[in-house]
Amino acid sequence: MNRQKNVGSSNSNVSFANALGFAAWIFVAHFLYLYFLQLQTVLLTNDVGIASITGGQFQTLITSCLLAALFLTLYRVGWLRLCFVLAMTLLLLLYATNNVYFAISGQPFSLSATEGVGISDIGRYWGSFAAELGVLQYLDYGLALAIGAFLFWLASRLAAPGSTRFYRAPIYIAIPLLLLTFVGYGLAGKADGRAEALTRNPLLVLVTEFGAEAKEGPPSLVNVMPPEKFYGLAHGTELADPGARSILAKNLEILQKRERNVVFVILESVGSRQLLENGLPRADIAPFLHSQAGNSIVFDNLTTVFPGSTRSHVAITTGGRTITWGSVYSELLYPFRGQTLVSAFREAGRPTALYSAGGLDFENLNIFYADLGFDQTFNPDSLSADEVAKYRTHSWGLDERLVADRALKWASGREPFFLTLLNVITHHPYGAPADYQSPFAGGDNFDKYRSAVHFTDSVLRTMVEGLKSRGFAKDTLLFIVGDHGEAFGDKHANNLLHNNFLYEENVRDFLMVIDLSGEIEPLSLPVRGSVADVMPTILDTQGIDAEQGVIGQSLFSRDYAERIAFFHKNSEPEKWGLRDGQWKFIVDKADSANPELYDLDNDPHEQTNLAAKFPERIADYVIRLGNWYVQTNDAFVSRLEGYDYKSSQGMTVAGLSEPGPKRIAIGSKNDHLPFVPLEGNINPEEDFVVWTNGPAYPQTRNIEYRFTDPSGAKQSIYMDHTREWSTVWLRPSLDAPRAEGDWMVELYDGDLKILEKPFTVSRGAPLRWSFMDKTPGIRAINVGVKPEGEDFHILQDINPRESAAVIVHGVPFEKDRMLEYLWIAPDDTYSAYTFAQKAGWDTSWTFRKPDGPMVPGKWRVEVWMDGDFLIGKDFRVSADAPLFLPIGGLALN
Q1: Contacts of 846 by beta carbon, 8 Å cutoff, 6+ apart
Q2: Most confident option among 86-100, 144-158, 542-556
Q3: Which residues have a Cβ under 8 Å from the Cβ of 646 and sit 6 or more positions away?
Q4: Radius of gyration, alpha carbons of the chain
Q5: Which position has the higher pLDDT, 6 or 886?
């Protein structure tokens, strides 16, 4: 019995001396492993002193001590000891993974980096991650497993009789480690930013994210400015060049003489600082674009609104209207109905097409582009799985040569056309196809990036040669812009990739206009503008007016007036900033801490922070930033079809000072479908939801939803608003059926009332979905598309070549049932498919199994079970409908 007890859950034979010795082994193993990883990074980068990281090991000391102390609370229970060793092994593997992430991004891993990343995105990110794996990284993982195995062996011997000298040995190692840390601190003093980032413990970073406290925003944000005021230069001076303005005006006259084909290229992760030198494309990385300087106009000093793709693409396409505090995972589900580059050319009667080498199913960018109404779209989703595997360059997309070839085939015979091209190989992990001979043979990321730019430049050369061979040269303009920049840590420590900082290498952009006819006078000028100016500039060259409300200006216009350019980022810590003439300002968005002010004319690489010399500017700039942040978002969402952006209270400039819901609406929300606001009365049995929208809380907050019925009785429902949720839906479980009359829902954060929304309950209101009906069955049906890993997107009109799908909702069946889906064509012929609806499912979708495109006309899809009709839906097939997900393997022009 005693033997069984010793190996069971409680082990009283483990002496405290042995346990203390094992705890010391934990301390030493944890400390030395983390220090080894940091030292490895230091030796590889050569930009941080060893003394700096040695003196910055206090977080490592703290976590090492905490782990040792935790073991001492568990050591008497055998299975807990083994679980502890397993958990510590996983922790060491996490550290090794964080080291790879740090090599990619220059920052420790944080939960904010995973916001919005879905299952379908894992493959892309794995490609970037795997590109950084080498012998050292595998050594890190192997060492972590070896340490785990060693600790497991020690733990299994902990209760064995014999000498405890082996368990006391690490104590003699731990003491020198403590001394080493303090000596290192004395030698190094305060660690610089790079060393601080290196020595931050990944475990503490994750833990503190959960416990982060909300910061109070600046009270000065109550000031409201109209756009004409907050866009006006405040402290900077305009870059005047009358001679250049005159040349631009003459060039505009030349360009407007006749309609031209427009090829619009958005380069991934390529900004002004990466591509241009002295205002022109660099000959070493972009020899073709450099060769076009003689027939080009280059604006080399634009500013993007966000150092990331989706929000930048939106701003470029809409003339500056974009999402700021909102969510791409909510707002982009709704069609944008303001003027865009695509809608303007469509209204002018131009054929339009989008050809992308990268997959667009990222942050709902595919939905945004599909809603714009291109006549033709092509991206990796247009190909079969075998073709994608054949033409893939890296995890983010396809060989751009294939895309350019398909685009040229589409353009043939369609003059004058508007063609958008998106590249992808310049996205991390960079590089070029194996069969491409790049002049940059280095194996580091910078050389891989230069190879990627060089390859894309060669694709543009091939594209232009193809246009010339088809007789398009005399009537074709190329407009080339970047979505944002890319950083490699050479100007600012820790600044890698693009989305962690707002320095010039991240946000400075350009626009290059190439006239293949060679009629214009070449010009390169540093006019200060914004990517908002790209859309009106392109339209101006074609004699098309930008609609009222477009934020940008035509860079060709004689009336062009330099304005403040705004930008922001939402990676932690969130920051925003502006460029006011020669002045560049950056500050923490939450509390106006850490202000940075640079004179770009005299300090183009932002090395000397002048904020302390001009304290009066900070408050003024923050007010302008708050106004831009709110009003730009409103300008975008006010043009979203079906989006209830108006409510009893909307986002205000003052509201930026406090996170939390700022808008509220009543509507319906089924799984995998966007929110649909319900206007007017609500049926007593309606299964409605309360929708709220606003800046996310930095930590999870419990919010009270207080419902008041017509009699005055109150009922409260509490819901956690999870950190980083900007949009929240609550499906209230109220007494059934609900009393008819006037209701009110109020939101409280503790005793503070946040929002309220009145609504009326009436039997006369239509009933869309009854929460009282518990009979199993299908209740709702919609037709549209379902991208992998994303929500269903409802379509009213469907393109003939669409990978059409149908989604049904209802009360779950108690057992598996076979449903039959009938797709009925306009001539009453139909195809039938069966689908197994599993027990417990309230939502399911299935795809039409096509043998080719659908014929245009009125279609219907019906659902049957056991020979009984359940539900049906009419829809229309039209060649004018946008194309979201082409049928896999279907040949495209």
Answers
A1: 805, 806, 821, 833, 835
A2: 542-556
A3: none
A4: 30
A5: 886
pLDDT at 283 over 50: yes
Alpha carbon 616 to its chain centroid, in Å, reads 34
Give me the helices (H) in 106-225, please: 122-131, 135-156, 165-188, 193-199, 202-210
H and E: helices and strands count for the chain: 23, 35
The pLDDT value recorded for residue 47 is 57
| Nearest of 741, 778, 747 to residue 760 by alpha carbon | 741
Residue 811's H or E segment, with its range, is strand 805-811
Cα–Cα separations (whole angstroms), residue 24 to 87, 168, 847: 17, 8, 59
Hey, what amino acid is at 196? E
d(CA 722, CA 209): 12
* Residues 527, 555 contacting (CB under 8 angstroms): yes
* Strands 397-398, 496-497: pairing kind: unpaired
* CA 672 – CA 786 distance, rounded (Å): 9
The answer on pLDDT for 790 being more than 90 is no
Indicate the helix (H) or strand (E) that contains 541: helix 534-541
Measure the CA–CA gap between 643 and 165, rounded to whole angstroms.
71
What DSSP character marks residue 855? P
Distance CA 267, CA 534 (A): 14
What single-letter amino acid sits at 57?
Answer: Q
Average confidence (pLDDT) over 766-786: 86
Report pLDDT for 11: 46
Residue 75: predicted pLDDT: 79
Q: What is the DSSP string of 33-81?
A: HHHHHHHHHHHHH-SS-HHHHHTT-HHHHHHHHHHHHHHHHHTTSHHHH
For 294-328, give one letter per residue: b (16+ CB within 10 A) or e: ebbbbbbbbbbbbbbbbbbbbbbbbbbbbbbbbbb
Indicate if the pLDDT at residue 354 is higher than 80: yes
pLDDT reading at 889 higher than 50: no
Cis peptide before 416 (omega within 30 of 0): yes
Q: Is 192 helix (H, G, I), strand (E, B) or coil?
A: coil
The chain-wide mean pLDDT, for the chain, equals 85
pLDDT digits (tens, 9 = 90+) for 379-429: 887 788 888 889 999 888 999 999 999 999 999 988 899 999 999 999 999
| pLDDT at site 225 | 84
Spatial CA neighbour of 754 closest among 819, 658, 670, 861: 658
Answer whether 288's CB lies under 8 Å from 458's CB.
yes
- The amino acid occupying position 770 is S
> DSSP assignment, residue 358?
B
Q: What is the pLDDT of residue 161?
A: 55
Mean pLDDT of 264-290: 97
- Distances in Å between the alpha carbon of 210 and those of 136, 206, 697, 833? 32, 7, 11, 47
pLDDT tens track for 17-54: 778 888 888 888 888 888 888 878 776 665 556 666 66
Question: Token digits for 212?
Answer: 């982060």
Whether 279 shows a pLDDT value over 60: the answer reads yes
Residue 569's DSSP bridge partners are 575
536 CA to centre of own chain: 26
**Number of other CB atoms surrounding residue 77 within 10 Å:** 16
**Residue 294 pLDDT > 90, yes or no?**
yes
Tens-digit pLDDT profile for residues 824-872: 999 999 999 999 999 989 889 999 988 788 999 999 999 999 999 999 9
Neighbour order of strands in the sheet with 830-837: 797-798, 868-877, 857-865, 817-824, 830-837
Pairing type for strands 352-356 and 523-530 reads unpaired
Closest to 306 (Cα-Cα) out of 586, 587, 499: 499
Q: How far apart are CA 664 and CA 613, in angstroms?
A: 43
| Among 301, 231, 346, 295, residue whose Cα is nearest residue 555 | 301
